Amino acid sequence: LENEDIDVVITDIKMPGVSGLELLRMIKEKDQNLPVIVMTGFASLETAIEAIKQGAYDYVTKPFEIEKFLHTVAKAVNHRKLEEKNKQLLENLGDLNKKLEEKIGQIFALGEVTNIVTRMQDLDTILQTIIYISLEITGAHKSAILLLDRISKEFVVRYYKGFDSQLMSNLRIKLGQGVIGAGVQKMKPISRKIIEENHTVLSKDEVDLLGESEFLIVPISYLDNIFGILIVADFPPDRSVTESEINVLNILSRQASIAINNHYLYQKLQNKYLTTLEVLVSALEAKCRNTKGHSYRVGIYAQKFAQFLGLSSNEISILQRACALHDIGKIVIPDYILSKPSKLSDEEMEQMRGHPLKGVEILVPLGIMKDIIPIVRNHHERFDGKGYPDCLKDGEIPFLAKLVTLADAFDAMTSPRSYRKILTPQEALLEIEKNIGSQFDPNLGAKFVKFNPPLIT
User: Fold this and answer.
1) Is 287-451 assigned to CATH 2.40.30.170?
2) What is the third-level CATH fold of 9-87?
3) Rounded Cα–Cα distance for residues 44 and 11 (Å)
4) Most buried residue, 12, 87, 276, 360, by CB count within 10 Å?
């Protein structure tokens, strides 16, 4: 049974050494579906019936007619073949169901990515979703997206899952160099099979990245522009990349490229809007001797203070934009109030205090730089809760808004005002020190005094 392909077993009930029933039991332990025909005399008919109960296909009583015997054998053989065919059909059906489930999963996953891209969610959300879907579709254990630095022409890791964190932090892939860099430049997918067919060899660094199992690398490109790379590695053992998986990952990479291209276009549009608004603020300040260059100086003070505090480049970038636009709301305040040489009336002061909210009203509909909105809104709040417009206090005030408050106050005190004299930097710092815990955050106020900014003229 182990070494031969047997269609049917014919055995007598009574045999020397081992009985037919014992043989039947041994056969059924090895192969439940192998048909067994038992032969018996009239005297042992009950035993034959017992054999049927134990799994025999049929029995033949002796003496028998050869035609009936051959007919029984033929039926058993046909039964065996039918069983095998049904088994194969079930296996094929199982494979088809599995492939169908995979296809449905792929279609669902691609639909999910398409929805995310069309909803214009932020780039980070889209790229993270693509990472997870690439793993789900392929069954691989590692995935990474690298974006091209247009200055260095190197691909740098943006997101990853499954890879070693130290490897990812140090990873740089030069466009056009090595198997990966050269392959991506040609905008073609790369897999182990493709590399072997082209008789190319991975470098040691590439082997360290991709390991010994199957992998798939697809370029993230839009038209003729290469934006990045999608790497999927560490496939299950003995798994090759299928044509279907290549097609799906190509679609994923195209979705990523659309998202990245939209992101870059959106950034350009943002910058144009912001530049226009900054020009408006500069023009507004230029009209008034008291405020000329104010936003620029506040931006410099805030930037240098942020560097003194060790803030990240991203936080400093947000801070610079916020400072440039922190008084954008003043464009709706009448010129006579902005340039009034004497103290403002209560009604005029009320209008002046409305400029943070007016600034928010200008910026929000544009949908740009959402991170600067809280700073523009809350740069006149006080630590004791007596500021405006929201009367926030202590930890309720956004951290970067507290920095702008200090820079704004320092410039206001050290710049000419028609209604009071200019303070020296040391006098302004002394004034800030006096108002720590009331107007200014104690921790940041003390650090600003220690920072001791050089005067900008």
Assistant:
1) no
2) Rossmann fold (3.40.50)
3) 14
4) 360
